[in-house]
Amino acid sequence: MNTMRGLLSIGLGLLAMLRPACGAPAMPGPSAAEKRIIDRHIGRIADPATRRAVQGQDMAWQMTTFLCQDAARAVLVRMGGLPHRFFLQDAATGSQVVTSPALVSGRGQFLRAGNAIQWVGFTWNCHLDPDTGHVLRFDAQPTGPIRPGP
After folding, report:
1. How confident is the model over 97-118, as a mean pLDDT?
2. Surface-to-core class of residue 87, CB atoms within 10 Å of its CB (0-12 exposed, 13-18 middle, 19+ buried)
């Protein structure tokens, strides 16, 4: 009887430890086509240390950088930004979120074109075709000026 209780306790303990891992929802990530595009970009990085650093970035960063960034450029320029002065992230955690292989969203900022230095915050959605890995649409909505300083 004690042996049975001991085995039952061990079994329930293991089940309690494994349940969160087994019952946890899978984190969304890239489709096979999107992963191939990301891997191709990373494979083109000549410096091994830089390549390892990029491989160590989370998947939201990789999808944003290698799948969405070029599509964002044209939209942000139409909003008044400089073509090479924007970030599809901010300093806060969770500024890039992979909802599914078809949608990555987040917060960012761009430098307004003109004489004065003015950064403008925005929220964005990058709509992807998981079958091809290509951007279907990039949407951005300005949230206002970013205050300078720490």
Report:
1. 92
2. middle
Is 3 within a domain?
A: no
User: What domain count does the chain have?
Assistant: 1
The widest CA-to-CA distance across the chain, in whole angstroms, is 83
What's the CATH code of the domain at 102?
3.10.450
Q: How confident is the model at residue 10 (pLDDT cuts 50, 70, 90)?
A: very low
Could you list the residue range(s) of the whole structural domain that residue 73 is in?
27-145
pLDDT for 96 equals: 96
Q: Which residue has the tokens 């078809």?
A: 102
Tell me the residue ranges of DSSP E strands in 1-150. 81-87, 96-100, 103-112, 119-129, 134-145
